[in-house]
Design a protein that fits this description.
single chain; 9 helices; 14 strands; globular
């Protein structure tokens, strides 16, 4: 379970050497970048940690998280990632072109049910604005921020400069914020060291599904909404699916041998539940279950940055 947000944005008590970080990122501009998996115009990404160390948008269920060739050439970024002492999942550079935006949305799906996201602005401008949970703010260069990604959020680049963030996904514990702050009570800079950085903690590959208690909690959210809509047949279906899931989990638990059985239960829910009658919370629960076995978050489409006019402060 993720840590609870008491406010939309949480600033972590760390700062980095901005000039060192910027020089490493600038050296990566000749790499092939990917278009954003959601197809947002003016959004490009460069994977640094990805499934099998390849340039893809695949989710952790598809294979082992490993450094990509881009990260291999960035000793200071590796040092920053190691310093965080968290299990590193997908980690990317994310570019937002001048005048571009990420439209209002929330992050739904099984990947997000498990993970927290950390933003580290590398190149930005005061006119780049992040909105979340009714608040708006600019995230400063070299700062580390978390935000409540399960709340509605958006980004707008009103400047004439390209914005690049280092974006880190991690399986954070419920006490992440408290333990992180305790380790860095006075705040700290992460200086660049010529010595070899300690190893990064990469998220291990494991086939993993929702445990029966977790699935039952999500189904209860949907059942409540469907009862209000007098969708009693759908309620009975969901209750039966919860029972089937419990029996399948007793047999397979977190074992790939059960993928077919788990997928059949999920597909039955997707096929028979009328999603249009679900409210927002119930729809998020539906989406978490429906995407549990998804392995890809989009098809990679490469783009050369030398075909794009880039401006940095």
């Amino acid at each position: 379970m993720l840590p609870a947000f008491t406010q939309p944005f949480v600033k972590l008590p760390l700062r980095v050497d901005v000039s060192r970080l910027q020089s490493e990122v600038a050296a990566l501009l000749d790499f092939d970048w990917l278009t954003h998996p959601s197809g947002f115009s003016g959004n490009l990404t460069l994977p640094l940690i990805a499934v099998n160390g390849q340039f893809n948008h695949d989710l952790s269920i598809a294979g082992q998280m490993l450094p990509t060739p881009a990260l291999v050439s960035c000793p200071y970024i590796r040092q920053i990632l190691a310093y965080l002492e968290v299990p590193l999942s997908r980690t990317r550079l994310m570019m937002l072109s001048p005048g571009a935006e990420v439209s209002r949305h929330y992050d739904a799906g099984y990947h997000w049910y498990r993970r927290l996201r950390i933003h580290l602005p590398v190149f930005t401008h005061p006119d780049v604005i992040f909105g979340c949970g009714g608040q708006e703010r600019h995230l400063g260069q070299g700062e580390l921020w978390c935000f409540d990604h399960r709340n509605w959020h958006w980004v707008q680049n009103h400047s004439q400069y390209s914005r690049i963030h280092l974006v880190i996904d991690t399986k954070a514990s419920p006490d992440f914020f408290a333990s992180f702050s305790k380790r860095h009570e006075q705040g700290a800079d992460i200086p660049y060291g010529d010595q070899a950085a300690k190893p990064m903690s990469l998220e291990p590959f494991a086939f993993e599904v929702l445990e029966p208690e977790e699935l039952s909690r999500l189904i209860a959210i949907m059942v409540s909404q469907l009862e209000d809509q007098n969708q009693l047949e759908s309620v009975r279906l969901l209750e039966a699916l919860a029972s089937k899931w419990e029996h399948a989990f007793v047999e397979y638990q977190h074992n790939e041998a059960g993928e077919s059985a788990y997928r059949q239960i999920i597909e039955e829910m997707v096929k028979k539940i009328d999603r249009s009658v679900l409210g927002e919370k119930a729809d998020r629960a539906f989406n978490t279950i429906a995407t549990m076995l998804d392995k890809s978050n989009g098809t990679p489409v490469f783009q050369r940055l030398n075909d794009i006019e880039l401006n940095f402060i």
